[in-house]
Amino acid sequence: MKTEFYTVTSSTYPADIQILKGKLESEGIPVFLRDENTINTDPLISDAIGGVKLQVYASDREKAIGIYKQLKTYVSDEDGNLVACKICGRKQLEVIYLRKNLVYKLFPFLEPKKYRCDNCNFLSKSLK
Hints:
Blueprint: E1 5-11, H1 14-26, E2 31-34, H2 36-41, H3 46-49, E3 52-57, H4 61-71, E4 93-96, H5 102-106, E5 114-117, E6 123-124
Antiparallel strand pairs: 1-3, 2-3, 4-5, 5-6
């Protein structure tokens, strides 16, 4: 019997995944953390292997994605209002770090923020 898994999300840090894992399990969805033990043993290889992957059974995919989107934190302005995407207008911008060059991989705190729309995947370097 072949069991299919779906990767809901991944994270460089295992601790970031634990909140989502707990929420999914409380909703009755079995969760599997791929590469968690490897990264806990050697955190420096996290980016090289793609971080910790949170996986669910393929049959639980839609429910898990829905719960994940409810827990996501989107970008807000100084007044606490969500910021809209320049392209589609949806208020689903999230901060991402690409870590494409060696300097940003070694010193991720130096990389400037980038913003990606969760709806249309538009990538922006600024909110304006």
